[in-house]
Amino acid sequence: MGAYVLRRLMLVVPVLLLVSLIVFTLSYHMPGDPARLLMGQAADEETLALKRAELGLDRPFGVQYVSYLGKLARGDLGKSYAKKGKGVGEIVRESFAVTLRLAVLATLVSIVFGIAAGVAAAVKPYSWVDYGSMLLALLGVSLPVFYLGFLLIVFVARNVGLRTAGFDDATLWSQFASLLLPAIALGALSTAIVARLTRSTMLEILGQDFVRTARAKGLAERAVVLRHALRNAAIPIVTVVGANLGGLLMGAVLTETVFSLPGLGREIVNAIFQRDRELIAGGVLFMSLIFVAVNLAVDLTYAWFDPRVRYE
Amino acid sequence: MRFSVGTVGPFLLPAAIAGGAIWLAAGEPSTGAVVIRSSNAAVPGTLRIAVLANPPNLDPVEATDTTSNALIRRICSTLVGLDDNLALAPDLCESLPTLSADGLQYTFRLRAGVKFQNGREMTAEDVKYSFQRLAEPWSKRFWIIEPVKGADAARQSMIDRKMDRGQPQTPIEGIEVLDPRTVRITLAAPQPLFPLFIAMSNASVVPREEVERFGQRFGREVVGTGAFRLGEWKDNAFVVLERFDGYFGARPTIAKIVYSIMPEEDTGYQGYLAGEQDIVQCPTGKVKLIRRSNLKDELVINPLLDIRYHGVNMERVLRGAGGEVVPLGGNPEKADPPVVLTSEQRERARKLRQAMNWAMDRRFLCEVILEGRAVPAKGVIPPKMDAFDPSLEGYGFDREKARRLLAEAGFPGGEGLPVMPLHFNNQGPNALIAQALQGMLLDVGVRTELNMMDWGAYQNFLDEGKATIFRLAWIADYPDPENFLFVLFHSSMKGTQGNNARYQDEGNDRRLEEARGCLDDAKRKELWRKAEAAIVEDAPWLFLYHSATALLIKPHVKGLVLTGMDAGSEMGQADLGKVRIEPAGR
Asked: Among B56, B261, B266, whose Cβ lies nearest the Cβ of A150?
């Protein structure tokens, strides 16, 4: 398993190199001049040329890219053009701290409510519980996150006294209160997917021989469902949850915008509008790294759920 | 027929979704009085404002956006500022500067005992240092200090020696420290607007030691002499300003200003209704509703010193189906490749532009699309500006006249006129405005093709002179017609500097230069009006409207006076030091 992990980790290097090249190339060729955006609406050509020189934008593409790689090799993600004086590493670290909390909370929402709804629907198929759960799941899949977000702000936040928007990191509770509704909005889609997947997988497993054997042994239904059936249904669910978590960790720009959260997704979208190339490249590289790491973690959890899995 | 869960179930879902959608889409009633549930919760001593954007940089010489400038205005001070009527008023100076008889030398006498927020007393040396920063290579507002004698040479010297941050400045010859409280500034040529230039927050006085200590981070750690000091700042979340107890002016009654950064107008609005915000921008599409609601007294429409227009690229050449030249702009001889128009073609081009102006239903744009947050423009100078000419007729809405002019231009009913590209950027109501314009122009026979771009790409597109008809806006940097007419129409400002229509006319340049150099206020006003009338007649733009900011302000916010330069909820000019929070019942 150690060799497997090492091999997977080594693959990260070419992946990141390729990502950096693609992102740098795209942002370089994107229409729009970072210097022009920084200097405002009425700047003369001389001032613009000075700004380009200050940012190193007057150098050829190859030189800029190699210089950027050099900085990366030293662990420096570069400087933001628009946020003067702030390093990309610092910006990514600050914004990812919010995104991480939001993504974890949204994933917890999807695991708890998704699995609960899926199991309930599978245990009592074609009942009101089943239809009710699947109706909610369909709504979760259908409602766009920004719309659900506004519904939660208008109908929930203002009625139960939660913050409508913004991130208050003063205490653990204030953080939780700031992130709960965004996490529900963001986790709705994952919850729905997990619920539907859990239902179908559980229905299949509950009909299998080993479940009948467990029941025949006189095990309580709760133990049959939770210990035997659910554990066997876990691998596809973990795969989906893991993939969703990877996606959520890359930032949820719509949720972050609707709830005014200072997360990574919003930061990178702002950087795109500002043509803040090093921030775009640094942010996307960091996202790629996270995605690879989450996928690896998901692969490694398979063995815990299914001891037959071997890593070659 | 028996209905079971299995048979009814599949129909329940679409019915529920459709019902929900209808209920939500119905929203508030379109007529009659409306009651909107809104909390008036206040935090004593704290003013809470929702702004749309994160300030990128609070270093005065590097700030160009409205949010940064608004915050700098609170943290720093300038030698002179603007009062509630936008008239020049002393700020760090004891009184307005004295001017020598030749119009070249301004002498500023500083107030005694002014302290920076780091505790040190401000002196005339700080003024000299701060003004020289405007000439440093990374300054974004060199033009403020450009009229000063020796400013060009100093800047060039700093550029030539590739000056880095923290290195010594090249002194500007025209800035002299006479004593610790007196500064004399000598201009290269008379510039009556110079005091207005240095009233901009970019010319704020800052302490050298803090600039040197923080280097590039000064924009995030700015220190000044203003009524508030920079407190906690969390990017894309909030910025807190705290009262500076050593402020030289009247002590603000509020202890704190909290700016919440909320890019979505509707989120800020919900926060306002929940009592979490005191001032927010009224969301697009909600103005009419608010006017009919219990919140109508909280809605403030503040007309701005601005102009919104669609420019015509005067260097652009259109080609007809057979490749023939279709005159649109006035000076395509500057185009690449150049085309020389005959005087008859020039006149036809002018009539075409005038026809398009007569086709504009500005009232529809202002009343329907912008919900009354704008007034139709007759020319360029905004109505709240002193030089505004109420007798200027401008262009009304007259389709018949438009059609007649179009025929006189050689395109009866638009025949022979190619489809004209119309470009705009994807912000605010721009798309709706562009669509309305397209319809209005089509009504008289002018066909256009709409193209939407994001701001970055759009700015480049304009800079390269590729646009034919393009949307732009201009908000006053300082309250003088020069900031509109000279910047937007003088040939020396063509391209990136403001004259995006690339308008070039010798007579116009002469009129603008004469007005700019005139030292007699009354005569200057007349000269600006004359210059404006000639520009309007030549129609290098579709003059559309002057806009207003729509704010929602809680009843417990007292003492706030808005000016024509308070765009958005940032309110870059208003004196927030005078604001009081007085919750009901107290």
From this structure: B266
pLDDT band at B15 (very low <50, low <70, confident <90, very high): low
Q: How many angstroms separate the CA atoms of B542 and B360, rounded?
A: 8
CA–CA dist A119, B87 (Å, integer): 71
Identify residue B432 by its one-letter amino acid code.
L
Name the nearest CA neighbour of B240 among B61, B64, B74: B74
On chain B, the residues whose CB falls within 8 A of the CB of A165 are 260, 262, 267-268, 270-271, 276
Interchain pair A260, B263: CB under 8 A = yes
CA distance B316 to chain A (A): 21
Q: Is B213 on the interface with A (CB under 8 A)?
A: no
What does the pLDDT look like over A70-123, one tens digit per residue?
988 888 888 888 877 788 999 999 999 999 999 999 999 999 999 999 999 998
ipTM (interface pTM): 0.78
CB contact under 8 A, B235 and A45: no
Distance from CA of B215 to the nearest CA of A (A): 8
What is the reported pLDDT for B391? 95
| Contact assessment for residue B205 and residue B122, using Cβ atoms and an 8 Å cutoff | yes
Residue B254 burial (10 A CB sphere; 0-12, 13-18, 19+)? buried
Chain A residue with minimal CA distance to B267? Answer: A258
What confidence category does residue B21 fall into, taking pLDDT thresholds of 50, 70 and 90? Answer: low
From A275, which residue of chain B is nearest by alpha-carbon distance? B456
Closest Cβ opposite residue B459 in set A36, A91, A95? A36
B267 to A41: CB separation less than 8 angstroms, yes or no: no
Show residues of chain A in contact with B495, CB under 8 Å. Answer: 45
DSSP state of B170: P
Q: Give tens-digit pLDDT for A253-285.
A: 899 989 999 999 989 988 888 888 889 989 988
Q: B365 pLDDT exceeds 80?
A: yes
Q: Which residues 56-75 of B have a C-beta within 8 angstroms of A?
A: 56-57, 59, 62, 64-65
Say if the Cβ atoms of A260 and B270 lie within 8 Å: no
Q: Write the pLDDT tens digit of every residue in B485-543.
A: 999 999 988 887 789 999 999 999 999 999 988 888 899 999 999 999 999 999 999 99
* Sign of the four-CA dihedral A14, A15, A20, A21: positive
pLDDT tens profile A154-182: 889 888 888 888 888 888 888 899 999 99
User: Binning pLDDT at 50, 70 and 90, where does residue B585 land?
Assistant: low
- Residue from A44, A45, A90 to probe the interface with B (highest B Cβ count within 10 Å): A44
**Angle of the A230-249 helix axis to the A88-123 helix axis, nearest 10:** 150
Q: How many CB atoms lie within 10 A of CB B539?
A: 21
CA trace torsion B283, B289, B293, B296 (10° rounding): 50
Nearest CB to A37: which of B6, B264, B456?
B456
Count CB-CB contacts under 10 A for residue A211: 18
- Looking at chain A, which residue has its C-alpha nearest residue B217? A85
Task: Count residue pairs from A and B with Cβ separation < 8 A.
Answer: 169
- For residues B226-231, average pLDDT: 97
Contact residues for B15 (Cβ-Cβ < 8 A; gap 6+): none
Percent over 70 (pLDDT), chain B: 94
Helical H segments across chain A, by residue range: 2-29, 34-39, 45-55, 61-73, 88-123, 128-142, 145-151, 158-160, 172-206, 209-216, 221-223, 230-249, 253-258, 264-274, 277-305
Residue B1: predicted pLDDT? 42
**pTM score, whole prediction:** 0.85
DSSP letters spanning B107-151: EEEBPTT-B-TTSPBP-HHHHHHHHHHTTSTT-S-HHHHTTBTTH
Place of tokens 């006294």: A161
Nearest-angstrom CA–CA distance, B169 and B135: 9
